[in-house]
Specification:
The protein is of the alpha+beta class and 194 residues long. It folds into two domains: 93 residues, Macroglobulin (MG2) domain (Immunoglobulin-like), CATH 2.60.40; 61 residues, no CATH class. 22% of the residues lie in helices and 27% in strands. It contains four helices and ten strands, in the order αββββββββαββαα. A five-stranded mixed beta sheet has the order 2-8-7-4-5, with no helix packed on it. The chain starts with a helix and ends in an 8-residue tail after the last helix.
């Protein structure tokens, strides 16, 4: 009888261990970047997030709270890296979060980055970035990261990757195809973002 319980206990432990997903390891190409330049972030392997465990990354001041979502860029399945533009000097961190959209923020890793120089005027300071605008609009509509009702499950972990053809599309293109009016709200080429 106790042997049967031990076997079930071991089986449950193995299922728990196999279900755990190790977060990706990230690194930056340079620890010091000039203002206006990009922080180039690479991952040790292509991302494999599921619909309930997407990753997002942001370049944030070291003084920002871990729960800060400013500048969030939701990463796509199969991404191997991302470029984060700098606009102000100071001490920053590249922060990798997981478990999105189930959790707004779940800090997995930080990499310090020093940004040197003077602030850069881009001409779009008052405007919200396209990704930020997209995330804000989806949150206001109470939709998930892909414009579907919260809790929607996706085959393969994301609807932006067609496993049969191997073709991926950007999250922006996918969401705008479902919600065409979003383009007027967030696309800088069609007017000012709100």
């Amino acid at each position: 009888m106790s042997t049967g319980r031990n076997i079930w206990g071991i089986a449950a432990l193995l299922v728990g261990v196999l279900a755990c997903e190790a977060p990706p390891t990230m690194r930056v190409d340079r620890s010091t970047v000039a203002t206006g330049g990009d922080v180039v972030v690479t991952f040790d392997q292509a991302l494999t997030g599921r619909a309930t465990n997407q990753y997002w990354v942001a370049l944030q001041p070291t003084s920002a709270a871990p729960s800060d979502t400013t500048g969030r860029i939701v990463l796509e399945r199969t991404d191997r890296g991302v470029h984060l533009r700098t606009t102000a000097p100071g001490d920053f961190e590249v922060r990798l979060h997981g478990n999105y959209p189930k959790e707004e923020h779940h800090l997995l890793a930080r990499v310090p980055v020093k940004v040197d120089g003077w602030p850069v005027k881009t001409g779009s300071e008052p405007k919200v970035g396209v990704e930020e605008c997209l995330d804000k609009w989806l949150a206001e509509q109470k939709l998930d990261a892909y414009g579907s009702p919260q809790g929607t499950a996706y085959a393969g972990g994301t609807p932006t990757f067609d496993e049969t053809s191997g073709v991926a599309q950007s999250r922006w293109d996918y969401v705008v195809a479902k919600h065409p009016g979003l383009r007027r709200t967030c696309d800088p080429s069609t007017g000012p973002a709100r």
